[in-house]
Amino acid sequence: MAAKPIMIVEDDEGLSRLISDILSDDGHTVAVFNDPFRAVAEFGHERFSLVITDVKMPKMDGIEVLDHVKRIDPNVPVIIITAHATVDVSVQALRKGAEDLITKPFEAEEFLYRIRKVLRNTFLLEENLKLKQELFNKFRYENIIGLSGGIKQVLEKIEKVAQRNLPVMIIGESGTGKELVAQAIHYNSPRRDHAFTAINCGALPQSLLESELFGYRKGAFTGATEDRAGLIELADGGTLFLDEVVNLTSDVQKALLRFLQEKEFRRLGDSKTIRVDVRVISATNTDPQKAISEGTFREDLYYRLNGITIPIPPLRERAVDIPILVQYFITLHNKKFGTDFAGFTPDAIDILLRYHWPGNVRELSNVVEASLALAGGRHINGEAVSQFIRGPQGQEDESGEGDYQEALGRFEKDYFSSLLRKSKGNVEEAAKQAGINVVTLYRKIKKYQLKKDSV
């Protein structure tokens, strides 16, 4: 199971050979040290999956070895072997971070079982940490793509609110990326190591929402055959994301308001009160003030949920971001499928810029994916794109972003400024990142009056 070797620290050569043989026969790579000083010195230079050390050794005992190892790498598990497992030794070893204590003499089968258990737990812990890092990387700010003023404001708000425990309400049309913003807040907050739990309040039957949120006791209603924790309880310590929160029924709104006020709730059919620590982020694709005026959404609940508002602009109001998003989706597609698509031709980008995008970024992603799936070459032209665009394609942009040439000009200016800033004014490096030659970039610098020494 272990790709890295197991370190054995044992001054008894006969016992160290026995342990080495047992582990080698089980498929492990082993490094044996009869001198604890040499073992500790070597530990600083090589990576090990596990350290097994005897407790009684001359000059340096196993507890000291444990101390040295944990100081260098706190995550490496250490197993102590002892002939006399006194309470004193056991308590001292466990307090200092030993994973297990094995008493001599031992049976090979029992010894292997304990080793495998420790390695399995370590493997699961490493996988968990790796997964959390992947999630953190996935929802960093730079994965919310765009150079437009609207997106810059969204990013600025995420950065400000992530570290605070305030409730957040995200307002934006369907497909603008509300859940992505919620995840970015969570994974950049002190709650990142706990659960991000999401529920779409508009996707579930309203009769099920209360039980989904708060859970229930066995027998609370027909079909409740066992106790079940709700999403609020499962999100303890983390973040609960309520998408399309305006769709909640009046009964669920009342129960949610009570929870937000008291920080406690009861499962359906239960008399026991449960307290949890949950940050609530909500989202809606409709105007909550309109829902309040129509009497379908409680005003007091709105103020409880709306600590900070983050509006996400629709894609038609940030046409300058479309070429960047297209290239981002192409990069993701190339990584996922091992393809080598270069990009969309100018006439294809022209069609995308003139389209109204009722489905926003989600629709753009689908159009790019579909166009790549049926593409016949490395560059996707307008004809390939147009078959996936719904409705009229030549309509004037209604966003105030201007016509195609104007939008393209803004995109190029922001895009090349960003590249020059990232490359610290190195034109050759910026041209390489953009996939164009240096002469072309110099033309763009002159055209948009970009100053290399000030970027």
CATH domain topology of the largest domain: Rossmann fold
Radius of gyration: 30 Å
Number of helices: 19
Helicity range = 40-55%
Mean pLDDT, to the nearest integer, reads 84
Task: Tell me what the structure shows.
By secondary structure, the chain is α/β, with parallel strands linked by helices. The chain has 4 domains: 129 residues, Response regulator (Rossmann fold); 174 residues, 3-Layer(aba) Sandwich (Rossmann fold); 87 residues, Helicase, Ruva Protein, domain 3; 41 residues. Helices cover 47% and strands 13% of the residues. The chain contains 19 helices and 16 strands. It has a 5-stranded parallel beta sheet with strand order 2-1-3-4-5, with helices on both faces. Strands 7-10-13-6-14 form a 5-stranded parallel beta sheet. It has a two-stranded antiparallel sheet with strand order 8-9.
Topology (elements, then pairings):
Layout: E1 6-9, H1 13-25, E2 30-33, H2 36-43, E3 50-54, H3 62-72, E4 78-82, H4 87-95, E5 100-103, H5 108-138, H6 149-162, E6 168-171, H7 178-187, E7 196-200, H8 206-214, E8 215-216, E9 228-229, H9 231-234, E10 239-243, H10 250-262, E11 264-265, E12 274-275, E13 279-284, H11 288-293, H12 299-305, E14 308-311, H13 322-337, E15 343-344, H14 346-354, H15 360-373, E16 379-380, H16 382-386, H17 404-422, H18 427-434, H19 438-447
Parallel strand pairs: 1-2, 1-3, 3-4, 4-5, 6-13, 6-14, 7-10, 10-13, 15-16
Antiparallel strand pairs: 8-9, 11-12
Briefly summarize what is shown.
By secondary structure, the chain is an alpha/beta fold.
